[in-house]
Structure formats: C-alpha cells, structure tokens
Amino acid sequence: RMIQDTKQVPHTHEREINVMLYNKYFHQVLTICSESIIRVWELETGLQVYQILEPHGFNTEVTSAAVDESGFLFATGAYNGTVRIWDFGSGQEMKVLPEGKDWKEDEHCLRRLIFLKAQEKHQHLVLALECNGTVKMIQGKEDDVYLMVIWELPDVVPFLQDGKHAVHLRMSTRDRNMAIPFPDVELIVERNFSQPTDNPAMDLLRVNCIDLLQVEGYNLIAAGTLNGVIILWNFVTSTVKKVYRPEDCFTVNPDLHPKHFKINDILFLFRTPECARRSSQDSICSSSQCESSKGPQSSKGSKQSIHDSEVKGEQTDVTVGQQQPMDKKHPGIANLPEAQPPILVTAHEDGHLRLWTLEGRLLKDMLPFTKHSAISLTSLYTDSCTRILLAGNVEGHVILCNISSFLDPPHDEKKFKQLLSWRAHSLEIIQVIYVEEKQVVLTASIDGSVRLWYALNGHYCGYFGQRRLFELSQTSDFILPCDVTEYPVEIKEESKFTEKQKYEYPLIFDREKFEDILWKVS
C-alpha cells in the first residue's frame, strides 16, 4: 500500500540548502543553509549532533564546504571569499583565511572547495573555485592559525578560441619550502596574442564547475564553463586543452537562452585496479544483499525487480570482463587488471548527460527519462568503484544509472543503463549523494530539506529534522513526503526512451464496446 508521510512539509533548515556533505568515517551528514547555520546529523537515526551559528561572522553566507580524506576536518567557504577549517568531531574552528582588505563585495565568492592530499604531514591544502572562475590553492600549516593562498591557475579560456585546441604549459622553477600537488605553471602563448574585449559572449567564459583526478599516472583538473566549453589541465603532459566546445558558443544568439550551453557539474569516472579486481558479487548489490535488504512493495509492483535483473546481467558482464589471462611465468596466478583511462561526465543546462573521453570523443549523449521534458541537471555523484551514476535536476528528480559495464572498453553505449527515476523534491536539487554501506541516497534541495531514500527502489525513508527516528530497515509500506505525488519510475529497456508515447486513455472510438447502442440507433 501507499501512504503519505505527515502533512508537514519536510524542513531540515528554515532556509534553502547551500551545501550537503557526507562523512563516511563518522557516518554523519553535514548541511549548511543560506542563513549560514551548519548542522551535523547522524545518518542512521537522523538525530542532530551539533550546530554552528554564523560560522563566518554575522550576516555572511556560507556557499561551499568539503570534508578531508581522513574525515577529521572540514572546510567552509563564504560569500566574501573567507575560508575556515574546522574539527569535524567537535565543531571547533582551527584555521581561517581572512577577507582581503582590497576585496570587493562578492568578488571572491567561493563556489566549490576540494581537499587535496597533502604531500607532507601537518599541512592542509584546499583547492577552491571562485564564482568568477578563478581556481586557487589554499594552504594551512600546523603552527599557523591563518590560511594563505599559495597557487592560482591562469585564465586559459580566452586563449582557446579561434580553433586553437591546446596551450602548452611552462612549469615554474620557483623554489618552494614544501611540496604541493600541482606545480606552478605559466601559459606559453604568442606574444602578439590579444584577448578580445568587445564580445558580449566573453562574459560566459567563466569556469562554473571543476573536478580533479590525482592517481598514479594522472594529475588532472577538469573544468566546465558557462558557455559549454570543457577544459582539461594535464600536469603530467604540461598541457591544457579544449576537450569540447559547442558550435557558436562564442557568439550571441538571440534565439537561444544565454546559458543554453552551460555545464552545471563535471565528474571524472575512473576505476582503480583494486576495484577492477573485485569479484562480480561486489557489484551494485549482490543477490544475497538484495534479498536481505529488499525494499517495500508498492501497489505499482516491486521496485526491487529491476535491480535484481540488472545486477544479474551486470554480474555476467563483469565476470566476463574480469577473466584475466594466466601468467606464463607463474601458472595459476592471474595478471592484475590494468586501469582503463578515465572518462568525463558532464551535466548540462539543456538537460543532457554527456560522457567523453579525455581526447574529446563523445561516448554517450543521453536525455534522462523523468516523465517530463528536458530538465536542467544540477548535480552528479558516483560510488567509490564507479558502478552507478546519480544525477539531480532543477525540478527535484533523481536519476540513477548503471555504468559498471559501460566503463569497460569499447564503452558500448547500450551498456549505459538508466535504472530508476523518482521525484524527491518539488523544487531544485542542489546535491545528491549515494551512501554505499547503507544503499541509500541523500538529496538536498532549495526547499530547505535534506531527505533520505532507498537507492534500490527510490522509496522514501524520511528527512533530517523530523521528530521520529529513521528506520533504515525497510517496511512494507510505500511512503511519500506530502509535497511529492509521483511514483518512482523503473526503466526496464532503453528502447522505451525512443518509442512513441503510449497514452493510457487513447482517443479511439471502440466500435465493439458501443455495438449494441449503435444497433439500437440504426
């Protein structure tokens, strides 16, 4: 049966959510609203652990945050460009990047923060993206309470116009007293190059989203811009190149919305050799896990069946893909699988999900199915072994895709499968997160709520801030929040995307049904 949750609209904060993070070591969720209140919650119960009021000072909005790799620290970035590092367990402030004396209002507003792996002990490094498109590195030392900006990427977008595909980098020889993840770089450009200043489309050249990949053999930063250009900084080959540029993105077209090409999120998809070695039973969920964690059955039928069937098929694919040739020198020992090159996925303003090679070849262009027309995508997330891909959009939908087999060469687009779509909020989703150990999805929205969903079927668990405790052991009832009325939609075959829509009540005259009436009239 389907029942509705309390008539009270879910509210985690009184204002819209700006940031949501998950700390997998503490099993806690951190949320920040536009009123600049930080709250930390227990995932399993939904209980609030602590909160921090006005963390960056009175009336200063916090716009970004990140958790470090160990889980012991988190950083916050604000509207005025200030950055603070906190102890996650206690909520105590540790370090601060103060506001510059010559900074203008919102000039250095921070859009994204990413903790970097420190090369030395007792140092903290944070990569920051400002709303103006500037990417910089912030450093904190153990014996200093103040943070400082030590590195900044040069603006390369204007140099990648007029058909220019790549720009070489000169690694700076400037001495540093400590190692950092990225070297100091300078662009190698022609001396007579002049940046155009009279083109209105230049305002759309700003970087809007970034992601990084630092593993053996790769040291990359990918960036997506407001006009749809994808840029890849490669610090191994000392180049920065244009992976993709839409046609006419540098010209103003009155027939198109100025942000038609906008990239809202970008993500590296990379499977480590450790993940490639894992057995097929370690897929999205094994058959035994699926049986032990079956979700509620709604009046629309089982939402578990799609995952059972997909996982079984996926396990077959993975098993075949992981049959390794035997080592001739050491019979009986399988060769270690080689890591495949990373793939880029981008979420676009036009509602499309696109996947690319690092060379710029389009592998998949998909318009997710959500019962509605194209809806702008806002957020992307993948699990630790890149088996699933989550996306959220501006109308509150969550899209769940299976990408496990797709990542294996030759990247057959038919193996990229959308599994589920469900309405999680009535307003825009700003972040989606998949919690692997609990197989649940977290969604944060501008409606002020952070909600919890079963990943296997899109069924509702509750919201952070509710009075009753979470019950992650699934029940037999299918529950919906009071502001959502749509059932989750399971996608069984990709061909249904392209089939003509079949209406439930077609306007066709049924002669057999009214045969008796017609006979009497005649």
Automatic annotation (TrEMBL):
Residues 316-325 have a biased composition (Polar residues). WD repeats lie at residues 55-96, 422-453. This is WDR64 isoform 6. PANTHER family: WD REPEAT-CONTAINING PROTEIN 64, WD40 REPEAT DOMAIN 95. Residues 285-304 have a biased composition (Low complexity). The keyword Repeat applies. InterPro entries: WD-EF-hand_domain (IPR051242), WD40/YVTN_repeat-like_dom_sf (IPR015943), WD40_repeat_dom_sf (IPR036322), WD40_rpt (IPR001680). Residues 285-328 are annotated as: Disordered. Pfam families: WD40 (PF00400). The keyword Repeat applies. Keywords: Repeat, WD repeat. Residues 305-315 have a biased composition (Basic and acidic residues).
